[in-house]
Every structure is written in structure tokens, then in C-alpha cells.
Design brief:
268 residues, five-stranded parallel β-sheet
Length: 268
């Protein structure tokens, strides 16, 4: 039997599962129909508390989060999601970063800052139009692809926690922290290189100090591989074999290049 030529083609299924948190029944149905048309599998809840419960039952890649909802609003729900991600990262070493898109009727800049401070990744203005929804979802998919590559270098949950330090009306502190780290880290590596090259009575102390400082700052920005290499340098130095530091130091320089690239993408 020939297919009905008048029927619209089925959209290709997108590689992402979406949760919609919206308390307006009408807005919720419109959002679900828009997502279906765009090819996304989606579930629905009507407040932030239900969103948290839904996440216990299924793994979502993207959440469309209404900012104003009863019981628990979108800001509080996002805070709790980010807190959960951080706790999971502490216990298991890593945690997936859920891309949260704020749905808001408020276009004021301070509201956008509030969304960012809560840990939301993007926002879309209501009433949601299909082209704008498609664009923001494509940004989310692109972010996921980039994030998967960056997750090998930078812990996304650490970055999310740093973004939450942003205060309304203030610039994003993450950019300044990234700049500070990148201005200091090469000097720490150079200090270790100089110490093992001179190999005098103070070399061990200087190497330990530089490695410890780099490990701490790398950990604070989620550069876990660089932190691990710095710790390895510490352990080798404490064992009293400075000659063995050189190959690990070379790996640390290569890892810093990867960290620099990843942080540039995050900062932008």
C-alpha cells in the first residue's frame, strides 16, 4: 500500500530525551506538541518538585523549566538539580550535566542573570515559538556534544557550581577565575621544570610547592586529570627521585593545553 502523500513526514527522532516542567495546562500541551513536531521524546510535569521526582525515574538530557511554578519554582528546582550533580560527582567521580532551558515571560536582563545564577544553561521567552524552540534545542544538542568531549578534561559539575556564585547585577565570576588559573598554571610548570633542572638542595621543596599549588587550583576548576598529574609529581618528589618527574611534567604540559582549550570554550 502506498503511503498517503498528503500526510506530513514523521520527524527524525532526536538523540535526546526532554522533560517539560510547566504548570499551565495549555502551555504544557503546546510545548509537547512542538517537541513532537521537532522529533523529541518528551515527558511532562507541572512543578519543580515533580521534575526532581521524574529525574529519579528516568535520565533526561534536556529540561524545559518554567521559572514560575507552584510548590517549587524553576529556580529552586535547578539549584537542587545542580546540587545533586555535585554530590553524584563527589561519590562516583563524574555526573552527567543536564541542559536546563528556562522558560520565562520576563525578558529583563536581571531575570536572565537570575536564570544563569540558578544554574540554567539557556532561556527562551514565552509564548514559545517553534523556530526559537528549535534553535535553543539545537544549541543544547551542540552543547552536549561539546560537553562530552570536555568532560574528559573538565568536570562539568565543578563549573556549574562556580557559575552559581554569580550574583545579580555582577559579572560572571567564572571568566575571572579561568583567567587567573591560566595566568598562574604555566608558571607552576615552569617552576617545577627549573627545580628539577638545577637539582640543588632546594629543588625538592620548590617542586613540591609548585605541584601542590597547581593541584589545588586545577581541582578548583575541575581539571581533574591535571590535578592527578600534579599529585603524581608530588608523590614522585616525596620519594626523592626528581629525575622521574620529567616525563610526568611533560604530560602535565600537554594536559594544560587541553585544559586551556576546554576552558576557552566554557568561558565563551
Amino acid at each position: 500500500m502506498k503511503p498517503n502523500s498528503d500526510s506530513p513526514p514523521s520527524p527524525d527522532r532526536r538523540p535526546a530525551r526532554v522533560l517539560v516542567a510547566e504548570d499551565s495546562p495549555l502551555n504544557l500541551q503546546v510545548a509537547l506538541m512542538q517537541l513532537e513536531k521537532l522529533g523529541y521524546a518528551a515527558d511532562a510535569v507541572t512543578d519543580g518538585r515533580q521534575a526532581l521526582e521524574a529525574m529519579q525515574r528516568a535520565a533526561y538530557d534536556i529540561i524545559l523549566m518554567d521559572c514560575q511554578m507552584p510548590e517549587m519554582d524553576g529556580y529552586e528546582a535547578t539549584w537542587q538539580i545542580r546540587d545533586r550533580e555535585q554530590e553524584q560527582a563527589k561519590t562516583s567521580g563524574t555526573a552527567p550535566h543536564i541542559y536546563i532551558i528556562a522558560m520565562t515571560a520576563n525578558t529583563e536582563a536581571d531575570n536572565q542573570e537570575k536564570c544563569s545564577a540558578a544554574g540554567m544553561d539557556d532561556f527562551i521567552v514565552k509564548p514559545v515559538q517553534l523556530p526559537e524552540l528549535e534553535a535553543v534545542l539545537l544549541r543544547a544538542l551542540a552543547d552536549r556534544a561539546t560537553q562530552q568531549a570536555m568532560d574528559e578534561v573538565i568536570d562539568a559539575t565543578v563549573i556549574a557550581s562556580l557559575r552559581q556564585l554569580r550574583l545579580p547585577g555582577k559579572p560572571d565570576p567564572l571568566a575571572g577565575l579561568v583567567d587567573l588559573f591560566l595566568s598562574e598554571a604555566p608558571g607552576r610548570l615552569d617552576a617545577m621544570q627549573q627545580a628539577i633542572t638545577t637539582n640543588d638542595v632546594s629543588s625538592m621543596t620548590r617542586t613540591l610547592e609548585a605541584a601542590s599549588a597547581l593541584k589545588g587550583s586545577a581541582s578548583n576548576l575541575g581539571a581533574r586529570n591535571l590535578a592527578a598529574l600534579s599529585d603524581e609529581i608530588e608523590q614522585i618528589t616525596k620519594a626523592g627521585v626528581l629525575a622521574d618527574v620529567a616525563p610526568v611534567l611533560a604530560k602535565a604540559r600537554e594536559e594544560l593545553d587541553r585544559v586551556r582549550d576546554a576552558l576557552a570554550k566554557i568561558k565563551s
